[in-house]
Amino acid sequence: MSPCIDSILLRKISMASRMSAARQLLKALEQLHKAEIVLCGKSAYPSHENL
Predict the structure, then answer these.
(1) How far apart are CA 40 and CA 25, in angstroms?
(2) What is the pLDDT of residue 51?
(3) Sign of CA dihedral 30, 2, 41, 49
């Protein structure tokens, strides 16, 4: 697991870098959601009905 980023370290990173990282995270989450690996408010596992 990655180390925790504390607020002091976070303030040293430029806003552009933080926004870029946030955008990458959201794109990755979107891909996981499309693959039905991450489902909002549902089980983390796809249902057998879709197979």
Answers:
(1) 16
(2) 47
(3) positive
Segment 1-51, tens digit of pLDDT: 666 777 777 788 899 998 999 999 999 988 988 888 876 665 555 555 554
Amino acid at 30: E
DSSP string, 14-29: -HHHHHHHHHHHHHHH
What backbone torsions phi and psi does residue 44 show, to the nearest 5 degrees? -75, -10
pTM here? Answer: 0.58
Distances in Å between the Cα of 11 and the Cα atoms of 1, 5, 18, 36 are 22, 10, 10, 34
Structure tokens at 44: 């983390």
